[in-house]
Amino acid sequence: MAGNDTKTGPICIYCGGAVTKERKGEHLVPHAIGGELTLKEIAGKSVCPRCNNGVLSVLDTALCRRSFLSIVASQELAASLWQVWDVDHASRDLLIEARPEWREGKLESLVSYPQMIFEAAGPQIRGDVTEAEKFGREQFKNVMIRAVHGAFERYNRGKNGALHFERVRNDLKTRNYRLPPRVFTTHTITEIANNIRDQSFIFRYLSPEDVRFALLSMSRLEIGNKNMFNQLSYHIGSQVPSISIHFNLVRTIRAMMKIGVNLLAAYCSKTPVNCESYRSVIRLILGKSHPHQAMLVTRNGFVRADGIQEIAHPGCHSFRLTYLDNRWLFYASFFGGRIGSAVSIPGPNHEDWNTMDILAPIHSKLWTINTTKLFRPMKVCVEWSDNTAICPSLQWQYADSSLVVREVPAEES
Ligand SMILES: [Zn+2]
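ok -> structure tokens follow
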């Protein structure tokens, strides 16, 4: 049986390859959403670093940092969200990179990340006003110019990782928002200052012309030029922040299936769970087979949250696996039932039970498992478009917004 043969050493349950350097191993539930246990700890099974840090990590990002689940995670764990913008209406609906701050399920404010925006009239530096005041405005400006200039120089010398290019694919233009190219980082200005030689930036843009324009603007940044960015103005955070959810459906489903396969591998004692016994689903997870997307999304995905309340438990992620017609139906309730999913996983079952309920307290290793011979499918409804049914606990009412500091170059005045 793969994974347990001591003579040949550990075998990756996903690709079947030998595992030589496994560190912590694969988390049963993504660590990004507070899953603490690993497959290795619970069952002594291995996932090779190539799968773990490669394709499986791409899937975790799709599910935990870009999908609907990421909004709930950002409230519960202060995890970073993929695309959140504050809108500066005074600058013709300019979008500003920001992170949300929540209180009791309500979006309280958006806090701008340190960023440089390349407008046609000249570059702008923006950031959070509280942070800028504390750090010193002049110092904030100088650190940003030096850090962006440094990242540009490293990029120009062909160094990897100085600028991470992200093209924004969105319906922004039809909503009349403006997104000129920009570089930003989720780090604080103090962190940037401490890492000024190696600070990398995310480079967001809409078109190849944007990239050329922003790079040209960066090449013209002058450290120590007192006339650059010498005007200061304030902008009140938008009352209508823009949270953009834009993610890959199939990757999200594959990520959900991966959690199910991990749990089966961890808790099935009699059933082999590996790339041979669970061949079709593991090939799908690894991206080696490409089923028709329309077929896949009708039966798998996020569900209307009312359907998973039966297994929901406060402070926990909870899961049910039940076996019917040669496949496992896998239900997940994340963050106490605030959002849930359902996928089906074809494969064998040699256990003496047909249903397993798993309670995984967030950030804890004290999980509880219950099994029964009974079949316990749930009445769930897969939903992809109605986000109020998927996340009913989110209240889209906006309270106070924070002040944001804005500097404009001299030529714009
Ligand atoms: Zn592998």
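The first strand starts at residue 83 and ends at 88.
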